[in-house]
User: Fold this.
Amino acid sequence: MKKFKVAVIAGDGIGPEVINEGIKVLKEIANLSKEFTIDFNYFPWGCEYYLKNGKMMDDNGIDQLKNYDAIYLGAVGYPGVPDHISLWDLLLRIRKEFDQYVNIRPITLMQGTQNVLSEAKREDIDMLFIRENSEGEYAGAGDWLFKGQPEEVVLQTGVFSRKGTERIIRYAFETSRKLGKSLTSISKGNALNYSMVFWDQIFEEVSKEYPDVKTYSYLVDAASMFMIKQPQRFEVVVTSNLFGDILTDLGAALAGGLGLAAGANINPERTYPSMFEPIHGSAPDIAGKGVANPLAAIWSASQMMEFFGYKELAQNILKAIESLLIEGKVLTPDMGGKASTSEVGDQIIKMLAQIIEQSRTQV
Ligand code: NAI
Ligand code: MG
Assistant:
């Protein structure tokens, strides 16, 4: 039997609460499938660890993680530790060191989800964001000169390499071709006269290799407007690190809120482990109350299954989420319900068992 090793960094705030439910689901999936087992190994890294040890993770943390098949991350960040430290010293460090240069964020309106756009139907909101995840505006390049003096200057430099830009755009074209969907590039060449002109040029160049893929190109400001007014324009979307970060929170709001939005940080070559996480943060305002929505964490568990090669099981997890939303009885308060985090996890497991049972009796 195949055996997967998953490193769990549950992190801070609601991170451990939602990750627990995702692990419950993954264990159940392994159980029901009888094709593989998953070993979970927990790492206590995060802000609490920082306050005790002065660092977000062990010095050799990257070495400790490198032989896992995947990393399952809750969220990091908590009042008491500056956000740029918690983000850079753990999350961004892992993304960079493991060259997880593709960030896949599905924005799909499930049936049964309360929808902020009253006219939008399920098929109108079904986008796959492919965000550059290794450089761009989050390259961490810059300087802070004359700190505290009247002539103080800060520089935050966007870094767009040919290799980095080409590979993400090519990945997006491959994905569009595989799915038979159009590809939209979102950039800002009119104002960012080096980086985004370059981005647009590379998009144009690579598109010549994919004459079968229909393409669109929007400026990021217009794209934000279209995401609300005409979301059906977007199928597969490729964009830079910063724009992808911002637009996928907007997308999350379109598709039912942050409690549902998942993200996979992928190293396509599989040289290093990939990392799966809900895109929300540690939500200190609701932490410890047992009311956090675990569906985003569970959705990212589905992305992990797909990455491991179990597409049907991954689909079944999404079907269970959709059944739960359609039924509308066991929901956390952010979705208008009264259920606790673990009640939602338990209900997903029940539905999953039914769905897998049904698919077995059908064949
Ligand atoms: P946040 O995503 O933690 O929370 C924003 C709002 O959404 C809050 O009102 C929160 O209660 C709600 N929310 C988020 N996830 C929810 C869930 N699963 N169920 C129900 N409600 C949910 O973003 P915020 O407040 O800006 O950041 C809090 C901390 O998290 C900061 O330290 C930030 O740096 C960190 N952060 C970490 C991320 C990561 O680890 N990937 C991503 C974003 C923020
Ligand atoms: Mg974000």
Summary: Residues 316 and 355 are 7 Å apart (CA to CA). Residues 14, 18, 75-78, 83, 87, 91, 258-259, 277, 280-286, 292-293, 296, 334 surround NAI (ligand 1) (CB under 6 Å). The chain has two domains: 1-113+256-363, 115-255.
